[in-house]
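Thread title: Can someone regenerate the structure for this chain?

I was given the following input by a collaborator and told the matching structure tokens would be attached. They weren't. Posting the sequence so someone can regenerate them.
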Amino acid sequence: MYKHYQDWNELAPRGLLLIGFGISILGEAIILKSKNKSFWRWFPLGTIALIVINAGISVFSEATKQRALYEMKLSQPLDKQS
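Best answer:
Regenerated them for you:
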């Protein structure tokens, strides 16, 4: 039962950090584009940012699933928990 809690406790902060880091990279790409820098300076940075943001969303979604499984186990009667 506590495996789900441990997974949630590890994955949730990692997902939030990845999302925040990806948004920061995206902001940098937007700044470069607004300064009319070369396409090849801002495009790869923006693409990496979107990959990092999506990875963060995936990790955070897995954390949410683990928390839901933990909560479901808590709501079961003690004789059914394993």
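The chain has a mean pLDDT of 93.
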